[in-house]
Structures are given as C-alpha cells and as structure tokens.
Amino acid sequence: MPEPWDHVDALILTGRTIQAAQAIRKEFGPLSMRDTIEALGERFEYLRDTRPDEFAVNLDGYWDGFYS
Q: CB-side exposure of 40: number of CA atoms within 13 Å?
C-alpha cells in the first residue's frame, strides 16, 4: 500500500506544484491555502535534502511557475 506522501512527492519531483498542492489538500483533509503552501514548502525542502538527484526540474527556478 502506498504511503500518503508518495503521490505528492512524485508531483513535487516533476515540478507540478499546483497539482501537488491539490493532492496535499485531498490527501490530508481540508487545509487553508496558507497551510497547504506551508506543507508543500516543507515537503519540498525534505525532498531536496533527501532526494536531490530525483528532481526533474532545475531547483533554481522551481517555484517560478507557482507564484506567477
């Protein structure tokens, strides 16, 4: 059985931040946008520390599409 973060991690690693935020809200219950973005940022940092070679996008511009 997959872990709750598996799907979210796959989305983060492929640079699909909006879909990852949606998956966090679906998987972990109703969260405010602020809490969702905070959880996404924390998970991103965790993955960057533990699985840096698995990112499919350049880490320097990762958040550019999320905030524009």
A: 27
Using CA atoms, how far apart are residues 26 and 36, in angstroms rounded to an integer? 10
List helix spans (H) across 1-68: 6-13, 17-28, 33-50, 64-67
pLDDT digits (tens, 9 = 90+) for 14-31: 999 999 999 999 999 899
**Per the structure block, which two tokens stand in for 12?**
């983060």
pLDDT tens, 38-66? 999 999 999 999 999 998 877 665 655 55
Whose tokens are 């690693």? That residue is 13
